[in-house]
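BUG: 3D viewer hangs when loading the predicted structure for this chain

Environment: internal workstation, default settings.
Expected: structure renders.
Actual: progress bar stalls at 90%.

Input used:
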Amino acid sequence: MVKIEFFLKARSKREAVRRFYESLGLSSQSQRGYLRIKSTNQTKIVSVAQTRICLSAQNHKEILEKHQDLLYDLETERLEEDVETDHAHRSHHIPFKIKITDPIGNSVCITPALEPKTVGILTSGGDAPGMNSAIWAMVKAAQKNGAKTLGIFNGYEGLIKEEIREITEEEAASHMHEGGTFLRSARSAAFTTPEGLAQAIATIKQKKIDAIVVIGGDGSMKGAGYLSKAYPELSVVFIPGSIDNDIPNTESLGAATALHRIIEAVDCIESTMTSHRRGFVLEVMGRDCGWLGLSAAFATDASYVFVPEYAQDAGWKETFQKTVRKRDKKCTYAILSEGARHISGEKLKADEICEALQEIGIDSRKVVLGHTQRGGAPCAADRLIAPTLGVAAAEVALSKPGAYAIFINTTEKVLNLHTCIEQLESLRRSPMDVAKLRGKEFVEMYNAMKMVEIKEAEETYCVAAVGALGAGSDTLISNLKKYGDYLGKKIENITENGYFQKRNLKTKPTEAELLSMKAYLASRSCTSLVLIGGLDALNEAKRLSQTVKSVYVLPCTVTNNIPGTSSSIGSDTALDTITALCDNLKIGASRNVAYIVEVHGSACGYLSIATALATGALDCYFPEETKVLKRLSRSVRALDKYFKRYALPQLIIRGNGAMKGVCIETAARILEEDGNGAYIVRQCCLGHVQKGNRPTAVDRTRAAQMALYLMKSAPKGSYVVGVHNWTPKALSIDEAFLELNEEKRRLKKATWLEMARTYRVLN
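Structure tokens produced before the viewer hung:
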């Protein structure tokens, strides 16, 4: 192999130049007025051309720590100047090509040089939707960094029986939109024995596996810890994947999809309930965790819910019957978590609940939803979590020796695996520890389910849906009315008022219009005004803040461009609809076809980036990114490379506010023309169909949480009430405008831009 070295003429800054290159891991030597720079075992010189120097470094982490003024190629360099990011580089991140300038103005590009490793991937315990998407992300991220990926089939049992083979990116990609796990899953009693563990370790050594990534529930997590302690030289990484969602402080893969299935079942069975005036008891999964049952009951306004965390005392039947009688509903149904029990420890059965309903004159039936809850394609929420966890797991497996758990809240967190196992085992599963085990939101939802006493109204809240709305606005209003009744607050819908209907919302109201609105609110004895919508609602809230004591904005827009919330109501429904439509394109029978799919979003790129990540699109054009021609050239190279190897359809996602001056038709023609007949490019504008129909489980649950928080806990004044992950919070409207780029109608600094890095790792 040819060794490359170069000379620099740096008389006045020789010492600074020497220190700079030595900090990158290179060696330097003074020679006749020049500085001779040479490769080392740590850092290799790849190429030198004029003022551009390319290096490959094993010590990339040390370089990141020493140089704080780095630019990360594919991240900051491609974003528009008004977009703020904190560029936080976490310890487990394998950087993209690092770009830095030396003391005399040369451009130095550094790529990470990792030692070749072999990563094994297994799924254990019960399957969960989203596992396949996480596997695809792991395979792609690992192979991109030069690693070999082995699929371990049938979980820990496959590790013992050597059911292992290499899996390719193409194979993983063909399953990413499917539910379950193509690696298959099994529970292994043999693995818990010393002989089984010894055989598993022997297999790992024989296959020369350097790291193993385990996807599963709490049992699988304990198994990963068991393996790590027995073989400390192995890097072990755990990803939570269980519909039960029973691991505290994280979201498990599959839980959102299972909730989606339950709520779909409730929607389907509701017509039968109404037609026959019949009550139902729906038994749902969750084992010893009531998250699925409680979330489904809370989101759909069930009559009652039974969960394992709250055992039923001797008077449970009277309490249940009293609650059902007081709830004025067109249909009656209770949700029963499979782990629910009497205070004696005996399992609570659906037949007992049906009998209780029969006693008060309600003909009832039981429905066990069973394994349909964990089947089918993952919903959009899981398909966003999965690649984020998968990429993080691959990077940790390749760069951090030890045992780790990858948890996720707003972003991924890398935690010590053994510490997480100890915390899980230390939590006593009893009613006294529910808040500690499940979190404050769990307790709030359960307490809300017990609200039945309607109080006399002491305050009046006027509610209006303003501007273009996402799916879920009706859900917000109905929940506001429900919790308003329980808490003594009258809810009056004033959406049809002329101020919101006849006036152009893009223009400022006249003084006369403001005075008229103030008089109207006073005539209704309005104490608080609630506006549901996007930026139009936020602007109206600012204008009307002087007309009433308190003004609140509930974000409800597919664009997801409102400050004070990580997720606007309607954005998950839109993404779920888009993802399903894109899947139809990808799994079609067409060959050598690329589709440019245009999605909503205007100047905000949330939907375009999220869609690209969820569907595994080849490229993505989003408004915050610059350089139109470079983006088109990037796509041409990617399409050419892809269709040389594969013939299956591929996607390019375009936000409708991206690439100003280049419409979707023009982009399609350019890409097809430069393909020289290797592929054809078709355009697909989804239009308003992407707003979806009924809101998803995620949007319904968050809508109910926002309504409950507004009615019960929101401070008085002018606030945006949003949700951060699953936690409702309030942000003052004045602070919200500080976070907003009013001219471009988007956030200055959006937390969802974290997804852009994950997307770039995969493309």
